[in-house]
């Protein structure tokens, strides 16, 4: 079966055979093209010992997903592949590193484990962008210093809204409401250069969409419970697409020029990412050790 670029995909059996025949081969598998670009850039083009794949280059069939209790989407395919390869390769943790977004599973304590699997340190790869280094470069270079507030202030103002949106997403899942969150931008406004979320209006839309108006109070109670247990780092409570949509909306409201679409914001923020932002983070320390062929410290514990 071809991948998105029309190229034939490797089967899982072929991937197992490849690594069985040459124990020195090391491969990193990630969810998407952007993730692969970040990993290649971090390890250094031409200097990395590991091959970098997107999971779209490997045929992970639905039957295999079902075997491991997973459903679909690139994240589930990465997790499935890590579990399957760990069961079929005796030294999988030294040959394969599958990297998946933690997503909501870390907050819900439902992460799946495998010796060949690593998760982002925060919600997703996008979450690393919520750093003062990245936002300072964005404001000084990307926005040419036109915004008066500093990087920390902007992150705090966006982060407050992003956290509430993340909590609403969590509560929809834990209460099994079975809907995706409605368009939250219709519930946003700006006051004193701060983004304000009309949460009451958004929750009204959630229960209306879910046809669950009698559960409105239960939804609010669940959000409060989740809020108490969730860490305070904004990177632990921000969905990447919400970040890009919110910042793009904010830029459109505040400035006539500059990046105005979520995809433009995403590209500009990623171009502001530097190695200093990633160095020292557990995932990237493990990635560096893996690339060098050094044993994973967790597997030695």
- How confident is the prediction overall: mean pLDDT? 91
Proportion of residues in helical segments: 40-55%
pLDDT < 50 runs, ≥5 residues: none
Elements, N to C (H/E): EHEHEEHHHEEHHEEHHHHHHH
Q: What is the number of beta strands?
A: 8
Radius of gyration over alpha carbons? 21 Å
* Number of helices, where a helix is a run of at least 4 consecutive DSSP H or I residues: 14
Structural class: alpha/beta
Folded structure, characterized:
The chain is α/β, with parallel strands linked by helices and 301 residues long. The chain has two domains: 128 residues, no CATH class; 150 residues, no CATH class. The protein has 14 helices and eight strands. A four-stranded parallel β-sheet has the order 3-2-5-6, with helices on both faces. It has a two-stranded parallel sheet with strand order 1-4. A hairpin with a 2-residue loop joins strand 7 and strand 8. The chain is globular, with a radius of gyration of 21 Å. It starts with 9 loop residues before the first strand and ends with a helix.
Quick structural overview:
This protein has 301 residues and is α/β, with parallel strands linked by helices. It contains 14 helices and eight strands.
Distinctive features:
301 residues; alpha/beta; 2 domains; 14 helices; globular
Topology:
Layout: E1 10-11, H1 12-21, E2 27-30, H2 33-43, E3 51-54, E4 58-59, H3 62-67, H4 73-88, H5 92-95, E5 96-100, E6 117-119, H6 132-142, H7 151-174, E7 188-191, E8 194-197, H8 199-210, H9 216-229, H10 240-254, H11 262-271, H12 275-278, H13 282-291, H14 297-300
Parallel strand pairs: 1-4, 2-3, 2-5, 5-6
Antiparallel strand pairs: 7-8
């Amino acid at each position: 079966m071809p991948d998105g670029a029309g190229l034939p995909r490797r089967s899982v059996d072929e991937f197992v055979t490849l690594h069985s025949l040459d124990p020195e081969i090391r491969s990193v598998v990630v969810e998407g093209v952007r993730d692969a670009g970040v990993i290649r850039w971090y390890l250094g083009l031409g200097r990395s010992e590991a091959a970098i794949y997107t999971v779209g280059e490997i045929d992970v069939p639905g039957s295999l997903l079902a075997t491991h209790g997973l459903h679909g989407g690139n994240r589930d395919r990465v997790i499935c592949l890590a579990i399957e390869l760990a069961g079929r390769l005796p030294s999988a943790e030294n040959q394969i590193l599958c990297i998946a977004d933690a997503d909501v599973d870390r907050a819900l304590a439902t992460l799946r484990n495998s010796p060949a699997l690593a998760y982002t340190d925060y919600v997703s790869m996008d979450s690393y962008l919520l750093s003062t280094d990245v936002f300072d470069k964005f404001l000084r270079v990307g926005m040419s210093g036109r915004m008066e507030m500093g990087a920390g202030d902007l992150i705090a103002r966006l982060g407050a809204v992003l956290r509430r949106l993340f909590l609403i997403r969590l509560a929809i899942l834990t209460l099994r409401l079975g809907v995706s969150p409605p368009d939250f931008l219709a519930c946003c406004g700006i006051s004193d250069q701060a983004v304000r979320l009309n949460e009451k209006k958004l929750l009204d839309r959630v229960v209306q969409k879910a046809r669950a108006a009698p559960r409105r109070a239960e939804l609010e109670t669940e959000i409060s419970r989740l809020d108490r247990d969730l860490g305070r780092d904004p990177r632990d409570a921000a969905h990447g697409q919400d970040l890009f949509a919110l910042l793009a909306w904010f830029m459109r409201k505040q400035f006539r020029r500059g990046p105005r679409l979520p995809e433009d914001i995403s590209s500009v923020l990623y171009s502001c990412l530097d190695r200093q932002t990633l160095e020292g983070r557990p995932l990237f320390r493990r990635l560096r050790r893996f690339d060098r062929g050094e044993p994973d410290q967790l597997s030695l514990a």
